[in-house]
Amino acid sequence: MARFEEQRERTTSIPRRASPTHSGVTRVSPVLRVTRARRLLGLASTVVLWGGLGCGGSDGIDDEDVPTITVLVDGDERALGPSADDNQKFLVFLAMVRGYRSPTNRLASRIEYSEDLREWTYRLRQGVRWHDGVPVTAHDVAFSLDLYRHPDVLYAISQGVGNIETIHVQDDSTLTISWSRPEQGGLDGWTQFFPKHLLEDLDPADFYRWEFWKQPVGNGPYRYVRHVPRTLIELEANPDFYAGAPRIERVFLRLGTSNKLTELISGNVDLATYLEHSEVRALLADGRFRIYHSWAFTEPWVIHWNHRHRFLGSTAVRQALTRAIDKVGIRRALDFPDELPVVGGLSPWDRAPRLYANGDLDGGPPHDPDEARRLLEEAGWIDGDGDGVRERDGVSAEFALLAHDSGVMSTLETAVLIQDQLREVGVRMEIQVVERSVARAAYRAGEFDAEMNSFQNVPSQLLRRDFFGPGSPIGYRNVEVVALLEALVDELDPAIQDTLYAQINEILERDKPLTFLFPFAARYAASRRVRGLEDGMHPLEYMEELWIEEGR
Q1: pTM, 2 dp
Q2: pLDDT per residue as tens digits for the range 481-497
């Protein structure tokens, strides 16, 4: 095992082959492995924060003159547990690290790892206690990881845990984890850890039904106070938090849904996340609010083409459709900033922000409707009857795009813009809006024409989901791409990684199994009374760093 060096508190560097220093210590730089952009952005829930110093009303919220924020979450009273797919859990529980572009240690004070990235050692921050006063130890971390891997639990959200081979607790503050393959980020920033002394005697078969999730004992900046079933969860600032008690003293998680725009404009809400474009447009004209953006490259937004479809099964057709889509125009129409890059293929998720900022990554073929028309005509798709839709052998150039109304990336408005752009080249696209769960089921079964959704940009995840193999949901198989992805999983040299990515993208550009659009993105609006927010910060993950401007 290689020798180690203490991790810097903030870093945007990437793992590289270690080189010895004059002191003989191997210098390596840690990164945070973000396996799902939804984890980075918390895109699975609709969140609204009610501002104000002491919210009153008939819902049980006390009218006290203390800094208070109320958060509307899409869930029930288990919203702080492992089954919740949003960032509110980090109000109560500490992950090892936090953030993506600038990872910061949280529960971990130091993270050390071997040159081959198969062995990671975590040294826990001293003085961190569970909210019942019991010290947090490495035994709690090991217990949680073993629990995730229990056959009755199999916690799918925590990616990478299933590849753990051994967990060795060295002492109360140190443990070493060995993985079966190189693990480029170790334990990611989405994994919660739980108090062993409170849970070790509970039945793992009831894991997701434990009453503990309704009244959790965590170790984060806020601690559980009470809950009203199907109504709210009350949290208070943790005075024993290692970084100091948060300035916002109370957080109420209101359980349900609401009209975000109405709540913002009416003054009942300080902050709302995951806004649609129409909501952003209305708020841009209101001087009481600021708009913030956040995006991640771990799951770029793409269109999946079903190769079994009688129109979309042609490579020339998919090439034509890609050139007919004006990504830059869509970005402008949806009021996303110019800094939001257009995506042209797979990229190293950990270095993608810097590579795109430096102009080192290709955004894909430019918008060229004339070339799109030429490709379609060359493939035999002609508008012979003048109805605006091309045909070939009695088959119309048309298909249905499956879209779920997620509120992310302004999905429906993006689909409508693409529909208009394809109409200009003689292709009819119907938009089918369904529930997210329905869209997922149809996609897995291959029962769709095309689907707009996110696409995993982590090689190990692509292999696990068999996107390019026999089980490909879009009917596209390519053994060469699979082999290149296999090589990427074990490759640590950035220069060689770039070569492998270039080879993969050359194949994807040739075959066009899918069309890349943008990084996974979200927008939120905050009242100017809420301070401390910046682009890229999810408010629920950074709540202890925020404050409310004094006065109303």
Answers
A1: 0.75
A2: 999 999 998 888 889 99
